[in-house]
Structure formats: C-alpha cells, structure tokens
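User: I'm curious whether this sequence folds into something compact or stays loose and floppy. Could you predict its structure so I can see for myself?
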Amino acid sequence: MGSSGLARLQGLFAVYKPPGLKWLHVRETVELQLLKGLNAAKPPAPEQRVRFLLGPVEGSEEKKLTLTATSVPTLTTHRLVRGPAFTSLKIGVGHRLDSQASGVLDHVTREHVDRILAVIQGSHQKALVMYSNLDLKSQEAYEMAVQGVIRPMNKTPMLISGIRCLHFAPPEFLLEVQCMHETQQQLRKLVHEIGLELKTTAVCVQVRRTRDGFFTLDDALLRTQWDLHSIQDAIQAASPRVAAELKKNLRLRLGHW
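Assistant: Here's the prediction. I'll summarize afterward.
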C-alpha cells in the first residue's frame, strides 16, 4: 500500500466493544486486522532514483571506465525495509454512560432519587470549576459555563457534569451519567453511594458507554467492520469533526491563559 493509504490511517475512529470482551483484546484484534489488510494490498511500484554507476565504455577496446546515469529502484521505500508503524489506537465509544442499577426501593420515590442526583451533580460541578482554575467572577468563566465547555486543566478524579434518572420502576432504575475521567469501578461505587443516601442498597448491574466526546454509537464500528477499508472510511468521516474539536480546545486554552 502506498503512502496515501497509510496517510488515511492518521486520525481517530470508534469501535463497539462487545460485552465481556476486554478492551486490550479489542485493540489487539483491530491492530491485527489492520496489519492483515496492509499486507494483503498490492505493493506500489518502487520509486526510482538516478544514480551514476561506474562501468566500461561501450565499443572501447581498452579497459576504460566511465560514469553512466542509470535509473534504479529506491530501496528505502520497499515494504521489507520500511513497514507500517502503529503507536496507539484511540478506541472508544461513549458520551453518556447509562448505568442500570437495582435495589430495595419500596420506601423510595422518584422525587427522592432526583433530589439525591441533584445534590451529586451540584457538588461535582463545583469541583469541576475548581479544577478548571477559572475565576468564578470573570466574564470568561461565565461564557464558558454557558457554553458548557468548562474542563479541568489537569488529571482529576471522576467528575460528573450531568446525571439524571431515565427510568424508575422499583426495584430497578436507569441512570444517565455524563462524566469525565471515570472508571467502571467508580461508576459502580457511585450507584452504591446513591443507595446509601436513599437509606437502602443499590447495586450496579450494567454499564454501557453511549458516547465519547463527539463519537456516538452511530460512529462505532461493529465487529464485522474491523477491517482496513472500514477503518479508513471511518477515520476520513470523523476527520472534519476531529479538526473542529482540536481547534475549539486550542482556542479555549489560549483564551484561558
């Protein structure tokens, strides 16, 4: 595959991770499929370069040598000399994390749950502003809060920017959580703490990531699409949004400093 084909692998894409499959196995599988696709492609014709080679003078009886301009292949671009390199793959699907939880909620109402969630969201929003190092009295902080683009400047604990109950049918309830720097363990702990606040018990039985940044489930490649051409097409489709997101983040950081 030529340099243009490799260039189409520069970017971000999302894949759907089946339940029960570890993310490391997903990454290794995707990498293997990419390598298979690259190795199966017809290699491009080698680039040519002009070299002056020393050889005998044609038609001369004497053993005279001369330099002759000759076109030879450039071995530096040969597939056996320079193979494709992969540093890391950004694999993810999500923005909302729909966490399904269950517990003993006979004495708990929807209003009780909503009140607890509002308190949790408020405390995390205060922490988000604190980690963003913004002056709360500044016009900049107000404008960023209105746009919903306040972000922490460094690594932080899990921060929740939004949480609500989508479905309430005791003993089960479904939460939608918008968060950053989260882990599944922290989300399970969150559900457990909600149960304690409600004077009952709650256990997280399922976590599903439905968005990561601007990537949604519609962008995520299914397992049957983990091949070279599908990934190249996905990268190209996401390229304008990636560029816009990088530009927006750069503008916000420059404005912040």
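Summary: The CA atoms of residues 7 and 28 lie 21 Å apart. The longest strand covers residues 159-169.
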